[in-house]
Design a protein that fits this description.
elongated; alpha+beta; 31% strand
Length: 116
C-alpha cells in the first residue's frame, strides 16, 4: 500500500507546486517606431569557394523588402538572402535563379543547403 501511495503524493505535490514558482513576465512597452523598427539593418558579406578547380567570388546579402499599402506606407517586411557572383563576366550573360520558401514546414535552411 505504501509503495502505491508515495508516487501519488509526489505527483500531487508536483502538480500543485508549479504555479507557485511561475512568475509572470513584465509586459514590455511597444517599440517607438512599431514592430518593424526592431528588424536589423541589411548585412553584406564577401566570400569565395572553389568548385571544380575554379574559384568563384560571391557576395551574400541578407535584408528585407518593404511591402507598401496603396497609400505608400510600409505595412510589412519580407526577409531575403541574395547570393551574387562577383566576376568580370557580363551580368547579362549570367543566369538568375529564384528560390522561394514555402512557409511553415519548408524551412529556409533546406533551401540554402540543397537548392542553392
Amino acid at each position: 500500500m505504501r509503495s502505491k501511495l508515495v508516487p501519488l503524493i509526489l505527483l500531487a505535490l508536483a502538480a500543485f507546486a508549479q504555479p507557485g514558482f511561475a512568475a509572470e513576465a513584465p509586459e514590455r512597452p511597444a517599440p517607438q517606431g512599431g514592430v518593424l523598427s526592431l528588424l536589423p539593418p541589411p548585412q553584406v558579406t564577401e566570400h569565395s569557394i572553389t568548385l571544380g578547380g575554379r574559384k568563384l567570388d560571391y557576395q551574400a546579402k541578407a535584408g528585407t523588402l518593404s511591402l507598401l499599402s496603396g497609400k505608400g506606407e510600409v505595412t510589412a517586411e519580407i526577409f531575403y538572402v541574395a547570393y551574387t557572383q562577383q566576376s568580370s563576366a557580363s551580368a547579362k550573360d549570367r543566369p538568375v535563379t529564384f528560390v522561394f520558401n514555402g512557409g511553415p514546414g519548408a524551412a529556409s535552411a533546406y533551401l540554402h543547403l540543397g537548392a542553392i
